[in-house]
Amino acid sequence: MLTKNNPVNTKQRDIPIAIAWLATVVFVLAFSCNKSQQTAPTVYSSASSLSYAMEYPSRLEKLNQKFLDASAKARSNWNEFGRFAGALNRPRWDQVKTVYKQADMAGRSEAIVDWMRQSGYITEFIESNDGTLAQRIGTHVNSQINKKEDPAVEDIDSRPFVRWALKDATEKLVEKRYRELNEAHRFVAMYGETLGKKNLRNLEGQVDSITEASFIVYILLIDLKQQVQTRVDEAGEVKNTLDNEIEGLQLIADDPASGKDAKAAASRRISELLKVKAPIDAHTEKANKLIEEFELRLEQFQKEYQDKFSILIDAVEQMEAKQGQP
Questions:
Q1: Could you give the CA distance from residue 41 to residue 171 in angstroms, rounded to a whole number?
Q2: Using CB atoms within 10 A as the burial measure, which of 50, 61, 218, 292 is most buried?
Q3: What share of the chain is helix, strand, coil (3-state, %, to 5)?
């Protein structure tokens, strides 16, 4: 029995974690199935929608930051390439070279690219709504695990467990599926004996690093650039949408026939809309600079990655040549 004087029962504590795992599995699978069944429809801009216009500045700023973060992450990954070979203990170097090359190509393979895009949406959704999800799932869990006849039994609040479990389950399920699709990981699993069991964990991390850098440089940055460009192209219409709403509200505020409460509500709404509109030009200017820089630097950025990767392969080939000597 769980009382105020006794610690949380392990089995009871595990219930919300298991339920959160199950909820995440269902969500990930359902999302993936829906994505795979979609065709390519004609999608129109939402810039004329007030609800979209209200969120536009934050959307654009978030995209700008994602672009910068992705660039920094890719560079961070390839700056570690020089340490990879030295972290391995007497593997079959010809097989290591195969692993690295497969990891590089995996970042541009259709299966990996499709999954990385999908998992990006999934992860972003979970991270943006983890508090709400934990609250709702935890409430249902609490109603089940706290059913009791003895009033001395202390209630369990599962929500902190659920929030952690959602994040943990999402990360692990995304990684599991990604590694199933990555030929480099399959090769490491297949040839673990000759690659060296002590090297497997290092190799798995190295594969992830190479694949991620390849994906960012050749796919994600281009995806983000296109998204940023789309948002920038909408800026004028978004401002018109906000201006039209402000104009309509101003008529209410200036109308002598409008009641005191209506005038006050219109004035508050106008202030809110003006605050939304204020940063649009600054965000758009920043986005335009990112796009210009991207156009100038993409080829250089990809060359920098390829140079670092070539140095890594050269180092492995040198080790392979030494290994083949009597």
A1: 30
A2: 218
A3: 80, 0, 15
Q: Which of 326, 78, 74 lies closest to 221 in space, CA to CA? A: 74
H-helix or E-strand spanning residue 133: helix 110-145
Domain-by-domain residue ranges, the chain?
A: 1-38+106-179, 48-90+212-326
Render 218-271 in DSSP notation, one character per residue: IIIHHHHHHHHHHHHHTHHHHHHHHHHHHHHHHHHHH-TTS-HHHHHHHHHHHH
The phi, psi pair for 2, rounded to 5°, reads: -100, 120
> Residue 253: what pLDDT?
92
Q: Would you call 251 exposed, middle or buried from its count of C-beta atoms within 10 A (0-12, 13-18, 19+)?
A: exposed
Low-confidence ranges of the chain (pLDDT < 50): 1-8, 10-11, 326
Place of tokens 């929030």: 163
Contacts of residue 1, Cβ cutoff 8 Å, sequence gap at least 6: 150, 152, 153
pLDDT of residue 44: 85
Torsion of CA 151, 153, 157, 158, to 10 degrees: -120
DSSP 162-224: HHHHHHHHHHHHHHHHHHHH-HHHHHHHHTHHHH-GGGHHHHHHHHHHHHHHHHIIIIIHHHH
Label residues 83-93 b or e (16+ Cβ within 10 Å = b): ebbeebeebbb
Q: 3 forms bridges with which residues in the sheet?
A: 153
